[in-house]
Design a protein that fits this description.
Blueprint: E1 11-15, H1 20-29, E2 36-41, H2 44-53, E3 60-64, H3 70-76, E4 82-85, H4 92-97, H5 99-119, E5 124-130, H6 139-156, E6 165-171, E7 173-175, H7 181-190, E8 195-197, E9 203-208, H8 209-222, E10 228-231, E11 235-237, H9 238-249, E12 262-264, E13 276-278, H10 280-283, E14 286-289, E15 292-295, E16 313-315, E17 322-323, H11 332-341
Parallel strand pairs: 1-2, 1-4, 2-3, 4-5, 5-6, 6-10, 7-9, 8-12
Antiparallel strand pairs: 9-11, 10-15, 13-17, 14-15, 14-16
Helix pairs in contact: 1-8, 3-5, 5-6, 7-9, 9-11
Length: about 350
């Protein structure tokens, strides 16, 4: 994992600090020796509660700002060394219903973030992307893909040896986060309702919030510029995840596991049976590292010369796309051990 020494004395700005990833970034970085951490979000209520949580840490400051307000971003980025951009509209259905808003925040917003970083000579900017950016089937995924391309292009147009180092990191489902199925399954089990499955054969990459954010923090200093880091993650069948949660949580809520029904409700419109973190086209320009795949820019030689050298290369000849239908899934016992070891079964794991 990333050494806290790399963060010592840095001024860091986190966008979307009230979200699942942003909050955990703030939590982990607050004890890593940063000189100052600024968290920004447009959620006034959550910002207030966050300010109370970190009131005893004077180096942490949370402020109101919307990604659509480029002028305010430029003001807040003054004196910042590192930007971790986690703000986005992320709910697939809501973005589908309000595509203009998705574009305004996820595309125009990241252009504003890039402009603010360049204007203030920020040293590094890392964009947190999503599996849905790979072969996107919906508006949200398409905006995330465009965000990745804008970040890569921002680095490509920079000057050799000078300017901001821009990169992206891409990961899949965070177990227990607001957008994952774990809080939904937990509520259904608690109330004795049927646990609803889209399809028993559906597979997903999974990772705990703490793991995912630790890897984001680590990849910040690995970036050479323009890459998309793909986090290596275990795979789970959704049916197995539901079964394990029923087995472990039903007794906690005074219910018998055998009384909780598993009900198949069908795949939602635009939903994939599997999850993709890296597609076939990207494989040709990918380097495998110990904890990641580093997808290099498609046009890396078009604008500037960059040396993509890493200290933990496993292979520079990746042959298969990173797809949850191809990767071996955890068995039920392995999955149960993973959930228990990483605290996913605890109530507090679903707070953010």
């Amino acid at each position: 994992m990333s050494s806290s020494g790399q963060w010592s004395g840095q001024t860091v700005l986190i966008t979307g600090v009230c979200g699942t990833v942003g909050h955990e970034l703030l939590k982990q970085l607050s004890v890593m020796g940063c000189e100052r951490i600024v968290g920004i979000d447009n959620n006034e209520t959550e910002l207030f509660f966050l300010s109370q949580t970190f009131a005893a840490q004077p180096h942490v400051e949370v402020l109101l700002c919307d990604m659509r307000d480029g002028d305010n971003l430029k003001r807040l980025f003054r004196g910042v060394d590192i930007v971790l951009h986690a703000a986005a509209l992320k709910h697939v259905i809501l973005c589908e219903r309000s595509p203009r808003d998705a574009v305004a925040t996820n595309v125009v917003g990241i252009m504003n973030v890039i402009d603010a970083a360049e204007a203030n000579q920020v040293k590094r900017l890392l964009f947190t992307s999503s599996d849905k950016a790979v072969n996107p089937t919906n508006v949200m995924g398409t905006t995330k893909l465009m965000g990745e391309r804008l970040v890569t292009a921002a680095h490509a147009h920079g000057r050799d040896g000078k300017g901001t180092i821009f990169a992206s990191t891409r990961f899949g489902n965070i177990l227990g986060s607001r957008g994952s199925v774990v809080p939904l399954f937990r509520r259904q089990i608690q109330q004795g309702l049927p646990v609803t499955l889209t399809d028993p054969e559906m597979t997903r990459f999974v990772m705990t919030l703490k793991e995912a954010v630790s890897l984001v923090i680590e990849s910040t200093f690995m970036a050479r510029g323009g890459e998309v880091f793909v986090t290596k993650m275990p795979v789970a069948r959704i049916a197995d995840l539901a079964s394990v949660l029923i087995e472990k949580l039903a007794p906690v809520y005074g219910r018998r596991a055998e009384d909780i029904e598993l009900r198949v409700v069908g795949v939602k419109a635009g939903e994939k049976m599997y999850e993709e973190l890296m597609n076939e086209e990207e494989v040709r320009r990918t380097v495998e590292l110990d904890r990641y795949f580093a997808v290099l820019p498609a046009f890396k030689g078009a604008y500037r010369s960059i040396s993509y050298e890493y200290g933990d290369v496993v292979s520079d000849k990746v042959t298969n796309p990173y797809n949850s239908s191809i990767e071996p899934a955890l068995g039920r016992q392995e999955l149960a051990e993973y959930l228990m070891t990483h605290g996913v079964l605890e109530e507090s794991a679903c707070e953010f």
